[in-house]
Amino acid sequence: MKTPVKLWPLACALITGLALNQLPGLAQDARPKPMMQGGGHPKGHHDPRHEAGPEHGGTRHAKIEQHIQMLQQRLRITAAQAPQWDAVAQAMRDSARELDTAMARRGAQVQAGPVAATDSLKTYAQMAQVHADSAGRLASAFAPLYEAMSAEQQKLADEVFAQGMRSGPK
Hints:
The protein is mostly helical. It has a domain at 57-170. It is built from 6 helices and no strands. It has helices at 7-19, 23-30, 59-74, 82-111, 117-148, 151-167. Helix 1 packs across helix 6 (151-167). The longest helix has 32 residues, at 117-148.
């Protein structure tokens, strides 16, 4: 199924919303870190950005669920739209899980010691691909919901996602 061009910004905004607290970590990971002898991090260094999902208290999972609920309310999803919305919500959860997995891989790589620049670039490329794939799946899940929305809801969706795209990472 071909996704209408109008939906790509919406999908990207959804994915961006899921990844907002991950992106600053990526930028910071790119900076050189002082290394201890043997390739470890400085004593006492702990980077919680490399923790993901329920195995670390579920805080990331809770944020995703809050984001899903906030969007559902802002978009005024009706009972009749619940099946389409459920597909969107599941796509958001799946995307978050995939992003968490990619971040955990990056975290393990960083924790293991010095990382070659080429390996770092490959990891970033893999993470960008996960992000792009997630955006595509989310756009596909969102398209039927968008089509089922009233004109007023579509306008709300356009505004909500335009705000998300303008605000960028926090």
